[in-house]
Specification:
- The chain is α+β, with helices and mostly antiparallel strands and 421 residues long.
- The chain folds into two domains: 244 residues, no CATH class; 151 residues, Sulfite Oxidase, Chain A, domain 2 (Alpha-Beta Complex).
- Helix content is 47%, strand content 14%.
- The chain is built from 15 helices and ten strands.
- The strands form two sheets. A five-stranded mixed beta sheet has the order 2-1-10-5-6. Strands 3, 4, 7, 8 and 9 form a five-stranded antiparallel beta sheet that branches.
- β1 and β2 form a beta hairpin.
- α1 packs parallel to α8, α3 packs antiparallel against α10 and α4 crosses α5.
- The relative contact order is 0.13.
- Bound molecules: the ligand Nc1nc2c(c(=O)[nH]1)N[C@H]1C(S)=C(S)[C@@H](COP(=O)(O)O)O[C@H]1N2 and molybdenum atom.
- Molybdenum atom (MO) binds next to loops.
Length: 421
């Protein structure tokens, strides 16, 4: 077995399978993980703020930017993670598989790390397509796994720190170290003990034929040069990012082949995530007696649509920036939220609860911190792109505010209640 494993490693040896390459790809992957974690936390706390948390409302595209980055970095992880696994693949054939307790812990955390990473980026990607082929709640699991991954990343970096620091820079003479290949080729190893131990004669019979097979198949992989490998990784990352980033980054829209949403597609040129049918609001939204109720200090004030239209109207350019990574800029017109707050006499630091006509659904009730209430760009919108708001975009009235995730831009508004501090 030992010999078989050794031969497997030898056969898999390649110029790209070395610790320098593992470090180069590893730090890109590490950076992508950190970006995903940071932007993910930001998105999470916007939706579930801890008591006393407040957020920047500007720039207005802040969330479009952070969440776009989250999805782009997450998508880039696919080729990067595959590249990393390709590089360290021969380590699977180390024999004995564990050399003591610490080594066991190290290998177990790596196994967990790889598994959890694959699950995380896969469910994240499927979520952008609104496809949930699993029985658990996506957000909670994605959030929890994020913490698990950051912990495992810290352990992994800690354990590999000596290697990482050693191979952080290119060797002084410009050559790339060939650590794994060296270890796998006894004839090239500097350790004579290793050479003597492994010898060169092959066993016969089945084992021998298996070795012949292993030795013959990876001929192609052996020829993978470092430059070719890095080019492949770079092209793959550029391709997967370039072909999806257009869903949030307008200049790349034409190349948006795989991104689940296209700009300009949908009623009034804006994509729709949840339809009036799915939300079961069509009847209530089209009812002639619809009115928006504001509740402050126990007093209810109602505004019919005509009354809202009679108030001063403001036009703003703000994006819908969905947590699922797509975003779309649009022109909205309606009543400033701060004007409504003033009409009912709300104090400057009053936050509100936004309640939709939609009766079920996790976004039928959301909260709006006073920093958004008091931002002059925050509107109870009545018009979109120069027309009366379409039913699918929240008719009779919907909330639109700068720097917030799409899920908090409540459609089909019904009530706006002050949250007593
Ligand atoms: N009441 C209600 N409002 C909602 C939603 C919802 O499910 N119910 N979906 C939100 C989500 S996830 C997004 S991205 C935006 C999309 O707005 P649009 O359909 O006008 O593009 O609406 C938000 N407002
Ligand atoms: Mo969304």
């Amino acid at each position: 077995m030992r010999r078989l494993m050794y031969e497997a490693q030898r056969a898999l040896a390649s110029p790209v399978r070395n610790p320098r390459m593992a470090t180069v790809i590893g730090r890109l992957l590490g950076a992508a993980f950190l970006i995903c974690f940071g932007t993910g936390l930001y998105s999470h706390f916007l939706q579930n703020p801890l008591p006393g948390m407040h957020f920047a409302t500007r720039p207005a595209y802040l969330y479009q930017f952070t969440q776009g980055l989250h999805i782009i970095a997450g998508i880039a992880c696919f080729p990067l993670l595959l590249a990393k696994l390709y590089i360290v693949f021969p380590a699977l054939f180390a024999w004995p598989p564990v050399k003591g307790f610490l080594n066991f812990l190290e290998r177990a955390t790596i196994a967990l790390f790889v598994g959890a990473s694959l699950v995380q980026i896969t469910i994240g990607l499927l979520n952008t397509y609104q496809w949930y082929p699993w029985p658990f709640p996506f957000r909670q699991v994605h959030f929890a796994l994020g913490w698990v991954l950051i912990g495992l990343l810290a352990i992994h970096i800690g354990v590999k720190l000596p290697l990482i620091t050693r191979y952080w820079r290119k060797a002084a003479d410009g050559s790339e170290p060939d650590h794994l290949a060296e270890a796998a080729h006894p004839d090239r190893s500097k350790n004579p003990e290793e050479v003597r131990l492994w010898g060169t004669t092959r066993p016969g019979g089945i084992t021998g034929r298996l070795l012949d097979y292993i030795d013959a198949t990876p001929q192609k992989t052996k020829r993978v040069s470092r430059r070719g490998f890095l080019t492949t990784v770079a092209v793959s990352v550029t391709a997967v990012v370039g072909l999806t980033a257009g869903q949030t980054f307008a200049p790349l829209d034409a190349a948006n082949v795989f991104g689940p949403r296209k700009k300009g597609v949908g009623q009034q040129g804006v994509p729709v995530n949840r339809t009036s049918k799915q939300a079961k609001v069509a009847d209530a939204a089209m009812a002639t007696d619809w009115a928006l109720t504001l509740v402050y200090a126990g007093t209810e004030t109602t505004f019919s649509r005509a009354e809202l239209q009679a108030m001063p109207q403001t036009e703003v350019r703000l994006p819908i920036a969905c947590v699922e990574g797509w975003s779309q800029m649009a022109t909205w017109r309606g009543v400033r939220m701060m004007d409504l707050a003033d009409v009912v006499g709300a104090e400057a630091e009053t936050s509100f609860r936004l309640i939709s006509l939609e009766e079920r659904g996790s976004f039928s009730k959301t909260q709006m911190g006073y920093e958004y209430v008091r931002d002059p760009l925050t509107l109870v919108a009545l018009e979109l792109n120069g027309e009366t708001l379409d039913l699918e975009h929240g008719y009779p009235a919907r909330m639109i505010a700068p720097g917030r995730p799409g899920v908090l831009q409540t459609k089909w508004l019904s009530r706006i209640e002050a949250i007593s501090a």
